[in-house]
């Protein structure tokens, strides 16, 4: 059945892939984005170059009037709310702007749904940062990485503990999304995502670490390791996230009003040193790196326990980090001109 899909932040990394996926299925796609992110213009051009048959609205998520008009005009029946200020560092530099985009922008989206009596399913990309630094979980320090001592991963029952302006603003959106299902009956789902990676990701030093390190290696730029390089994240290839979106939406009766921890899980976790080993092998060259101090609130290790997603909508990731990183590496190698245009390097 033809669907009308509104993607806020639809020119970003996850948004572009989501848009391309739905356009391929023949759905009607509306991209709402202010193109503020490095690479967003390049992503939009790419979307246009392969399929012009979608609607692009250059709009700010803070602009409630414009958002409401968009909802009234297009009456979407599926919404991905992805527009966001996505870096912790920027949120510390400008906490008000971060709040207005992430907290108020998410509230605007929900209000536009409520005011238009929307029956749409709406998915919100939240983040594992809403769990805080999790410093109370016992960990083991190994030669090249940290590991959890007693658990496989962090599930949805761990207490929320917003850290940093980005954690607070995303967490605020996360809680409003869940509450609008409870109080106003909206069909919302929250994905608390770990590191997602893949083509059309314009990694910068502050965000999108896999893509950032790929960029740096391919352009022979020096990198800083903040901390000791043993920090671990579970990583998820974009195609696996798109499948999770689909399955969660199809199973809305079960997933409605619930949060899900979504990442590669225990089988797909990587430290910086482990990533370096994979990339250095692919590129046949070595990183030029130095060390910096730990970033405030940085988790030494974060691995999602993804069993609730498996139980509720039968989802498990399929793409291994080795396989996925090769695809990301190849995409960057083939699109070096876009990376240059997007100005991802400060020096
Ligand atoms: N990529 C990840 O690893 C990851 C992990 C956890 C959560 N998330 C969340 O997933 C979502 C998408 O992430 P992404 O990696 O695609 O980020 P991205 O930065 O590539 O995309 C965000 C998009 O939002 C747009 N945008 C920013 N401010 C806006 C505003 N005021 N109005 C309208 N549009 C605006 C940007 O131009 C960009 O196109 C975000 O909400 C992010 O917090 C991502």
UniProtKB/TrEMBL annotation:
NAD(P)-binding domain ranges (all copies): 6-327
Enumerate the Pfam families for this protein.
GDP_Man_Dehyd
In terms of superkingdom, the source organism counts as Bacteria
Q: PANTHER family in the record, alphabetically? A: DTDP-D-GLUCOSE 4,6-DEHYDRATASE-RELATED
Which named protein is this? CDP-paratose 2-epimerase
Its lineage reads: Bacteria, Candidatus Nealsoniibacteriota
């Amino acid at each position: 059945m033809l669907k009308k899909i509104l993607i806020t932040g639809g020119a970003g990394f996850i948004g572009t892939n989501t848009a391309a996926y739905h356009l391929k299925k023949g759905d009607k796609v509306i991209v709402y984005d202010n193109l503020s992110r490095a690479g967003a213009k390049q992503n939009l051009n790419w979307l246009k170059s392969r399929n012009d048959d979608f609607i692009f609205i250059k709009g700010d998520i803070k602009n409630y009037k414009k958002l409401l008009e968009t909802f009234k005009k297009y009456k979407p029946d599926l919404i991905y709310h992805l527009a966001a200020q996505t870096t912790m560092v920027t949120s510390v530099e400008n906490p008000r702007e971060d709040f207005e985009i992430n907290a108020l922008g998410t509230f605007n989206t929900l209000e536009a749904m409520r005011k238009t009596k929307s029956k749409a399913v709406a998915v919100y990309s939240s983040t594992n940062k809403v769990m805080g630094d999790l410093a109370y979980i016992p960990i083991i320090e190994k030669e090249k990485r940290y590991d959890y001592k007693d658990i496989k991963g962090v599930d949805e029952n761990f207490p929320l503990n917003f850290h940093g302006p980005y954690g607070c603003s995303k967490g605020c959106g996360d809680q409003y999304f869940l509450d609008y299902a409870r109080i106003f009956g909206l069909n919302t789902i929250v994905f608390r995502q770990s590191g997602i990676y893949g083509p059309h990701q314009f990694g910068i030093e502050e965000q999108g670490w896999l893509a950032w390190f790929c960029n740096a290696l391919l352009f022979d730029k020096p990198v800083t390791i903040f901390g000791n390089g043993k920090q671990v994240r579970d990583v998820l290839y974009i195609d696996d996230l798109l499948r999770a979106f689909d399955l969660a939406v199809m199973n809305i009766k079960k997933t409605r009003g619930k949060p899900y921890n979504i990442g590669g899980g225990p089988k797909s976790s990587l430290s910086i040193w482990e990533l370096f080993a994979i990339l250095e092998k692919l590129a046949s060259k070595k990183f030029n790196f130095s060390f910096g101090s730990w970033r405030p609130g940085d988790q030494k290790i974060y691995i999602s326990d993804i069993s609730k997603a498996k139980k509720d909508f039968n989802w498990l990731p399929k793409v291994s980090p080795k396989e996925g990183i090769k695809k990301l590496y190849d995409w960057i190698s083939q699109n070096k001109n876009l990376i240059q245009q997007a100005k991802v390097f400060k020096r």
